Amino acid sequence: MTTGKPHDRVDGRAKVTGQARYAGEFSAPDLVHGVVVTTAIARGKIVRIDAAEALALPGVLQVFTHENAPRLAWRDRSWRDMVAPGGSPLRPLHDAEIQFSGQPVALVVAESFELARHAAGLVVVVVEAAPHQTRLAEVEAEAHEPARGKKGYTPPPKPRGRADEALAAAPVRVEATYEHPALHHNPMEPHATTVVVEADGNLTIHDKTQGVGNSRDYVCKVFGLSTDQVRVVTPFVGGGFGSGLRPQYQLFLAVLAARELRRSVRVVLTRQQMFTLGYRPWTRQRVALGAERDGSLRALVHEAVGNTSRFEDYCENVVPWSGVLYECPNTRLEYGVAPLDLYTPIDARAPGAVTGLWALESAIDELADALDLDPLALRLRNYAEEDQDHRRPFSSKALRDCYREGAARFGWHRRSRAPRSMRAGPLQIGWGMATGIWEAQQAPSQAKALLTADGRLHVASASGEIGPGTYTIMSQIAAEQLGLPIAAVRFELGDTALPPAMIQGGSATASSVGSAVLAVCKALQHSLLKLAQTMPDSPFAGRGLDDVVFLDRGLRLRSGTADAVPIAAIMRHAGLGSLAEQATAIPDMARQSRYTSNAHSAVFVEVAVDEALGTVTVKRVVSAVAGGRILNPKTARSQILGGVVWGIGMALEEHSMLDHGLGRFVNHNLGEYHVPVHADVPEIDVLFVEERDDVVNPLGVKGLGEIGIVGVAAAIANAVFHATGRRIRELPITLDKLL
Amino acid sequence: MLPVMGDETCAITLKVNGATLRLQVAPWTTLLDLLRERLGLTGTKKGCDHGQCGACTVLVDGVRINSCLSLAVMRDGASVTTVEGLAEGEALHPLQQAFIDHDAFQCGYCTPGQLCSAVGLLAEGHASTDDQIRELMSGNLCRCGAYPNIVAAIGQAMRPRRSA
Fold it and tell me: What residue stretches are annotated with the Aldehyde oxidase/xanthine dehydrogenase a/b hammerhead domain (chain A) (predicted)?
């Protein structure tokens, strides 16, 4: 078996030697450079743009603005990408209207990057400001159900029972409001696009994207091009986390300039401009829980309002998890979005679940405190054995094992219940825990494969590699299916010339693209078996795929003593130099829709709080994950580590700060927007519990990109409460909130 | 109006990954942009251009620096080592191998900076514990959160040194 074992990344050597090439690193002989000019007001209109001084510089080729940009697609639907929410997407350089601070209003193109940057500073944008609103509390009353149209969004389920009456009647109640600010993804690679104009006028585009097909289709629709005129090639992405799900404005601007100038163009955003893209929305939530004195939940109310822009209804699944995670007869879940004069939010690692579970899992901890119960015992008391909202079973749910194995690894039984009861020298110690949940999903994807007589296998699908290890796990799956060493397999991705794959998001690549790779390898197996059956005295006569196994570059009967037949011999016999297959994997909806499929986790955290300084240090974390079958424990562990680190950032550091006077994010750099650094991250113990699931997809995997972060912020906040007796309900937990 | 600095260039000599280069560079060109745009050494990454993320870390005369904060003309005569210059032919630098062994990266974008920074760290000789590694590597951000694996990788590369 090749899957299930730890494997080094097959792209590891390229990444440690600097050979992995990212979107802004491709070149072309006549390449010119574009630098974006953004606006500094949140709402209003452009009165005029004076680019004369910039244009007067030798080497400056053009300054594109709404005044000289060509008229392009007219309908909103041409501008709406695969994962756009409902509304009217941003049309850069379309007209004089300013919809948010940081909106791109000009692109300066010059022969060198330095010259373009210098010239961009010379462009004068005269604006007329209109009043703006960037305070969520001021617009909460305007919260509305999001317009339809965003893929993956499910409106909250209908109320079950009578939650408010049950809450009023419950012997023990907790009720609180939780809030977290807008959070920017900040992948290390800034968004970038290199557009290479080929000799025939076609465009080869290297775009930082989580979906090459999404970028390709967007460019085709907006610029009125056919898909054979545009090819998007992105073999490596320097982190996405959701920020690359939608085409970002540098793609549009680079293509615009390349077409107008008939030159190859590169546009790279600055780190400051990365804060003009989407973000995890600012969200306020109210959770009310009612319970019997033994801890049995009687009522659960969860209401959330997240911000969106004025022109699109970004939405995410914040509250549905609360109806699924715990058994409770009376629930009422509500969600709305409220518009601010900011850019539209965009999915950020575990969108919705991170937000909802931060509130729910804090509230459960508050209830445990009110009941004087162990927080883990309270969760086990209310463990849901089926999906009450959809009245269907779980395809698998090993959360109980996460709780048990995680608690054992952490030593949870040694926790003293009372807040402020554990100390280490001058520091207050706190132990907290929380649950995580994320939806296991599969989307249609295709793959092709070419097996050559020399025993090499080339498999390809237009998926992405934002860092999870796609190249590696796909190579493992293919190698295992055909009994080849991994070194004999090459997996190719990130190119619209390859068979289409689902956009890389939602932890669904392993399940979706993996299933396509599995399917195409099964097709090869089938062809090889057929060919082997035509060999003289074939031991495979009358046998099916279930009777044979591919091992050590050969085919053999699963039972019996017959010798294996080398794949090379089968192909030689058939007179084939190569064997090609293509396959599509489509989710078995008839079966999958009868079940609810989720990944789960239990997160245990120890913090040390210095009450004199208000500082919180995470000392250790145990994350126990039920994520179905684990294809590569090495890369899988890394995914969970990354999620936990994101959770530490969310809990203690990250905060996109709005200056409401200016209506803009003001800490727009990595010196002031704090993400965790080496010194902030302790030992993180990741364990995967055994979980078999033959419903979710043919591989039995659930995806790991999101589950690692979910619940971490609540676990840390709960640990801070245990350490200090202070319940912080507004993230991040910075020292000002503890002093 | 400012003079257009790109018009004038200065002659400098740089040794880059062992090769001596005589270059005419504009005074406003950073060492980072020189490496990436002019010399095609895109292994060195631009993450913030403000010295806040460490992705552009290279070794100048053996010392780790943020190449985005240095103009190329300031380094006339210096010897620069980038991630492309760490391996000896096909043989990876022990840190490069340790990064692969410990899965010390995911997307790979911060990796060249982490590697060059770690080479500099080992040369400085101030780190012997994991906590010291964490402290002295904190100028290199990794948004994928590979930190525990990076610390383990650096620890592995340090071990022979410790026993020596």
Answer: 17-131
Q: How confident is the model at residue B95 (pLDDT cuts 50, 70, 90)?
A: very high
Please provide residue A85's backbone torsions phi and psi, each rounded to the nearest 5 degrees.
-75, 175
Residue-level pLDDT at A560: 80
Strand duo B79-81 + B10-16: pairing:
parallel
pLDDT 10s digits, A595-646:
999 999 999 999 999 999 999 999 999 999 999 999 999 999 999 999 999 9
Give the A:B interface size as CB pairs under 8 Å: 191
Q: Distance between CA atoms of A96 and A471, rounded to whole angstroms?
A: 44
In tens, the pLDDT along A58-109 reads: 999 999 999 999 999 889 999 999 999 999 999 999 999 999 999 999 999 9
Average pLDDT over residues A588-597: 96
d(CA A670, CA A186): 8
CATH architecture of B94-163: Orthogonal Bundle (1.10)
* Edge-to-edge strands, sheet with A60-64: A60-64, A104-110, A32-38, A265-268, A192-197, A203-207, A230-232
Q: Is B115 an interface residue toward A (CB < 8 Å)?
A: yes
The answer, as to whether pTM is greater than 0.90, is yes
φ and ψ of B32, to 5 deg:
-60, -50
Question: Could you tell me the residue ranges of all domains in chain B?
Answer: 5-85, 94-163
The answer to whether A639 contacts chain B (CB < 8 Å) is: yes
Nearest-CB residue to A467 (from B41, B106, B112):
B106
User: CA A365, CA A728: separation in Å to the nearest integer?
Assistant: 12
**B26, B99, B141 ranked by CB distance to A16: nearest:** B99
Chain A closest CA to B115's CA: distance in Å?
8
With an 8 Å Cβ cutoff, are A186 and B148 in contact?
Answer: no
A681 with B148: Cβ contact below 8 A: yes
Helix (H, G, I), strand (E, B) or coil at A39: coil
Smallest CA–CA distance, residue B162 to chain A, in Å, is 22
A413, A405, A357: which is closest to A686 by C-alpha?
A: A405
Is B5–A25 a contact, with Cβ atoms under 8 angstroms apart? no
The domain B5-85 is placed in CATH, from the list 1.10.10.10, 3.40.50.620, 3.10.20.30, 2.40.420.20, at 3.10.20.30
pLDDT for A691-723, tens place per residue?
999 999 999 999 999 999 999 999 999 999 999
Q: Which residues of A are catalytic?
A: 706
